[in-house]
Amino acid sequence: MRDLRRIRALLLRTLADEGKLSIVSARLILRTGVSLTDPRPEQVYAPAAVAKVTSALAEMGFDLDALSAAEERMR
């Protein structure tokens, strides 16, 4: 369903700033060991990596399902 590149793109559109994305990505690396800015190739589509990132982002207040739905409504 999701991959790390899609999550990164959605966050970048939401934050509208590479600097803010870098800060969120740094927090994700510390919490999950997964980088959104430069993910390892084997992590991009790995369900476990995607689940860890999605969960950590939810804990930080980013509801990816809501963000994705809002983006779809805007199209």
Number of helices: 4
* SSE run: HHHH
Beta-strand fraction estimate: under 5%
The rounded Rg comes to 12 Å
What count of domains describes the coordinates? Answer: 1
Kindly report how far apart the N and C termini lie: 20 Å
- Coarse structural class: mainly alpha
Number of strands: 0
Helicity level = 55-70%
Shape: globular
Mean pLDDT: 90
How do you describe this structure in short?
With 75 residues, the chain is mainly alpha-helical.
Overview of the structural elements:
The longest helix is centred in the middle third of the chain and has 15 residues. It is globular, with a radius of gyration of 12 Å. The chain is built from four helices and no strands. It has one domain. The chain is an all-alpha fold. The two termini are 20 Å apart.
Descriptive labels:
mainly alpha; 75 residues; single chain
SSE topology sketch:
Elements (H helix, E strand, L loop, with lengths): L3 H12 L2 H15 L14 H13 L4 H11 L1
